[in-house]
Design goal:
69 residues; alpha+beta
Length: 69
């Protein structure tokens, strides 16, 4: 079975701020940054992205199950 592959590009902007590009058409780059005092809080940090990913996964799984029943 062939696995789906994807590319992700992270570029350092300054200090602890990065730009993440997901390589998806129509999806703009996302600025990631640590909250003060490390960063300026110009975007979500890694912990917030993980929380959003887990929340999205659980919500999508729930919707899938509800729609199947």
């Amino acid at each position: 079975m062939e696995q789906d592959r994807f590319a992700l590009t992270l570029d350092l902007l300054h200090d602890y701020a990065f730009t993440a590009e997901f390589g998806l058409p129509g999806v703009p780059p996302l600025t990631l940054d640590e909250p003060p005092p490390l960063g300026a809080g110009d975007g979500p940090n890694a912990a917030r992205l993980i929380a959003a990913a887990v929340g999205n996964c659980l919500a999508a799984s729930l919707l899938f199950c509800l729609r199947k029943s």
